[in-house]
Amino acid sequence: MFAGRYLWWVLIGIGIFIFAALGLDPITWLTIQLLGCEEMAGACEPTIRLISGMLKPGCIWIAIGVLFVATLVRLHYLSLLWFWGPVAAIWFVAATPFLLFISADMAAAWPVVLAMLPVALLFLATFIAYLMVPFEDADTHPLEASATLRLAARLAAIYSVLAAAAFMPALSRSAGALLDMPALSVVVALAQPYLQTMLIFGTDSMAPAYAVLVLFIATLAASLLPRAAARPPARSTIMLRRLRR
């Protein structure tokens, strides 16, 4: 998937999300006013259930699905799917509960929103913006400028994946339910606090995670800097090649 087409699908996904989060509530209110069902107790419940209970979550899931599939196709086009595909999938899984929450309650106070904001969502947003760069126009590949940059980006991504797993409240319940292993839920629930303590280095803040996020952003930005042009071969090297021929 070319960068322009990827940008188009990302904008479509964001547009669907904004429409579902901000536009369906006024539509629900307008529909109730037009039907005049508020005068009868329980008469508006089917309409509210249809729009707010089915249509709104469905649009949110469609928006997330569009972004997820477009990201995987873009990674496949750039030959980055084998490593960054699973990483992006974990970012999406970790960010989905927050997206569902914020779409259901757009009037939530900013302190509550910031307290629930997953770091994985910030990594995901940064990576999606990075994939919009038209690498194919310059016949280059992402993160090919330096092996050090590739290593730093992958280490930051691995840290973010571990942080997403450590701070995901529903991970233990979901893992046990999907694999039908109740004991796994207990193991994950017991391991998560230790993993959290290790990732934040024993502190009570998410400052280490945000520091890794800054490193990730800086690494991606540095990979976009123009590389120094390769030195032309020396005259003696050219003459030697001619003699060999």
Automatic annotation (TrEMBL):
Keywords: Membrane, Transmembrane, Transmembrane helix. The keyword Chloroplast does not apply. The chain crosses the membrane at residues 6-24, 58-77, 83-102, 109-131, 151-171, 207-225. The keyword Transmembrane applies. This is Transmembrane protein. The lineage of its organism: Bacteria, Pseudomonadati, Pseudomonadota, Alphaproteobacteria, Hyphomicrobiales.
